[in-house]
Fold:
Amino acid sequence: MILEAAVLNVRSGAEQTFEEAFRAASPLIAATPGYISHQLQRCLDTKGRYLLLVQWETLEAHTINFRQSANFQQWKQQLHHFYDPFPVVEHYESLVEFSHNGN
Amino acid sequence: MILEAAVLNVRSGAEQTFEEAFRAASPLIAATPGYISHQLQRCLDTKGRYLLLVQWETLEAHTINFRQSANFQQWKQQLHHFYDPFPVVEHYESLVEFSHNGN
Structure:
């Protein structure tokens, strides 16, 4: 399982429109083969900042199945104009998972 | 529920020692009142980069219960010397959660 993570900085004043656009675009990414789940988190410390986290079955589910899809063209069109600067997207693998009741 | 997120950049060559130290230090944060869970993710794109994600019941569980604890002094001593530069820690609240089967 792969975690895609990106800190998104949205143009000042466009936060609410972005949030609505993100909700509307969510089915586009969720339709991808190898997609598991995603979430958008809103930053409490910095206005206009969000954290996008996407769980994929494999790296290629993101880099090929999604990024080379027609749905990604729509996703770009609907969301990319909100970002300033354009986000750095990175991929992670889980190393440690720990919860209240121990490892 | 609050998500604490920090991108950690570890000094070159110290990655394995850091990973072991992080595992060893995990019970220190997990003992905090209001702590739910945490994970350490290792970046596939950039060597030495990690993503720390911690779920807290409230913002104060992190900023007061943990940061003002004796455990945090130990946590700092065991982990902070690995980071270069020192990480920016931010807090997020969930806005959108979406999975394979819809919202």
